[in-house]
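Here is one chain, start to finish.
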Amino acid sequence: MVQIRWDTLTVGGDPMPVYVAIPDGDGPFPAVIVNQGLGSVEHVIQKLTERVAEAGFVAAAPLYYHRQKDNILDEVKELPPGSPERVKRLFEKVAQLRDDEVIADGRAAVEHLQTFANVSAAQVGVMGFCLGGRITWLQTTAIPEFKASAPFYPAGVWTAWGDGPTAFERSSGINCPVMGSFGLEDGNPSPEDVEKLDAELTRLGVEHEFHSYQAGHDFQNFSAARYNEAAATASWPVVMDFLHRHLG
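Its structure:
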């Protein structure tokens, strides 16, 4: 059992909801930021955040669309996950995100976790899925508090959100171990893209390990047609072990 709740942080004058899951016990526990996918902090991300807490981490999933004033998330609720119309509408939200703001949101979430009496403030990691995998890569380049980073199939790391370098071009800022989880049948990132990410971290001397599974994109998303139970089941304990090794 874990305790769950929504906290609200203020970032740049805007309220940012954060879904928090806390293990039973007194701790202190290491903490993990869980970065949302395309559909925001929806049911799947909430359940994955709870699973991170069940593994012994205080977990928090920030809602990065909090600056946006549209009603798109409500409008797509009844559309099937992965459907072209739903994806098209959600990309309208992605187009409004900016790298500097997403980094500021991540910093605020880390600082919030570090105030918890049952969190080991020096032991904070980050993980995320698809869009959240890209956010994870980006934040890992800019938030030195992270002691471990575990992006799942980070999509779009070669594109900047707003002015400035891409997430990939910022890779020299990474100063913690990285574990990447990828699908061999994925196109974004493709196996060739994964080789480029691997080569760049090797060039930079970043400790890392990549694991690829016989699956396509979004294989952890149990609500979508692309969900791959074998890959999801195989990859989860590998990532939890990685986080425990580096966060305690």
